[in-house]
Design goal:
Structural class: alpha+beta
Order of helices and strands: HHHHHHHHHHHHEHEEHE
Distance between the termini: 70 Å
Number of strands: 4
CATH architecture of the largest domain: Up-down Bundle
Helix content: 55-70%
Strand content: 5-15%
Largest sheet: 4 strands, mixed
Radius of gyration: 25 Å
Shape: elongated
Strand order of the largest sheet: 1-2-3-4
Length: 340
């Protein structure tokens, strides 16, 4: 079935391949407009992530120019065009550095933010994200090769979601969320590698031929493809691990979102002064307003008088505003034989 589908794919004539090269090269210019759009899209994505606005994050995906050089790298691999490949990779790296720098600045300007659902969503990549990236790269390459379906490129930009995970890396590192930043970096690298490889595959199926006097495939391209495939296989390990963890957890949407790091540290510092009292969890309840904070404690005896009031006052003081603070206390039972 798959073989028959591949055989039905239209191949490009010589003139169409020339036009394709021109269209792809246009997205790999790396001029001032490209970098301005990268700065603006990164800033937009960072703000959308910080405030938890899905609409703003989607808008940032639509205006981000990062897909251009990745598709250019895929075409370069299919052609064996070393000059185009080098240019595409350099421009892509510069764009990534630009986006990372913008996200770091946004993170520093918003210290102590409470991670939103948009940020948390980029912190748990799995094998499905790899599938999305593969199909996104293939669709983008196919749409560029067949101008009649070019209107699908906007949807591809949203599906690929390159800029948001890049911005989560910078925001996470500047706000004491190293694991979120690391997982988002894995998601970003997965997208980059999968898009380049799937775009190269799509261009090959469309009939793009290798360059050279004999029309052969340049020797460097297979080596690069092998390296990218090896990187993709390495990335499968954390992606499959996240899938296993999600199956164990069951609920993919957390009941509690983390509070800001300075709020957590203040509560922990206060509880360290109380013997026999342990913090189990603290977070913002996802099913309630953002101004609701839940704290769960465990104690071996009676909770000291006034602890609840002091914790409530502390959260109000450190977090700001007048959030609803719910404190749940669990009494630990001594199961030692003979104990009451």
């Amino acid at each position: 079935m798959l073989t028959q589908l591949i055989e039905r794919l239209p191949t490009l004539a010589r003139e169409q391949r020339k036009e394709l090269l021109e269209r792809v090269t246009a997205g790999v210019r790396g001029d001032s407009d490209f970098h301005v759009m990268m700065v603006l899209s990164s800033g937009l994505a960072s703000l959308g992530l910080l405030e938890g606005s899905t609409a703003v994050v989607i808008g940032a995906m639509l205006v981000a120019p990062l897909m251009g050089p990745l598709i250019g790298a895929g075409l370069a691999l299919a052609q064996g065009n070393l000059l185009l490949y080098r240019r595409s990779i350099v421009i892509a790296l510069l764009a990534l550095l630009t986006g990372f720098a913008v996200s770091v600045v946004m993170g520093l300007l918003n210290p102590g933010f409470e991670p939103s659902l948009e940020v948390e969503a980029r912190g748990t990549p799995d094998i499905l994200d790899l599938g999305v990236a593969i199909l996104s790269g293939f669709v983008a390459a196919y749409a560029l090769g067949r101008p009649g379906v070019a209107n699908t490129l906007a949807g591809v930009a949203i599906a690929a979601a390159l800029v948001p995970p890049l911005c989560v890396v910078g925001i996470g590192l500047t706000n004491d969320r190293p694991m979120v930043a690391a997982n988002s970096a894995i998601l970003l690298l997965t997208n980059l590698v999968a898009i380049i490889l799937s775009a190269a595959c799509a261009f090959s199926l469309l009939g793009v031929r290798g360059l050279g006097s004999s029309g052969g495939f340049r020797s460097w391209a297979p080596r690069v493809i092998l390296v990218l495939v090896m990187v993709a296989l390495i990335l499968l390990l954390p992606l499959m691990s996240n899938v296993a963890q999600q199956k164990r957890r069951g609920q993919t949407r957390p009941l509690n979102y983390p509070v800001a790091a300075h709020v957590y540290e203040a509560v922990v510092a206060y509880l360290e002064k109380l013997p026999g009292v342990t913090l189990i969890t603290i977070g913002r309840v996802s099913m309630e307003p953002a101004s609701s904070v839940s704290i769960m404690l465990a104690t071996t005896g009676e909770l000291p008088v006034g602890t609840k009031n002091e914790l409530t006052r502390l959260v109000h003081e450190v977090r700001g505003g007048d959030p609803i603070v719910r404190i749940i206390v669990l009494r630990e039972v001594d199961e030692t034989p003979g104990a009451l």
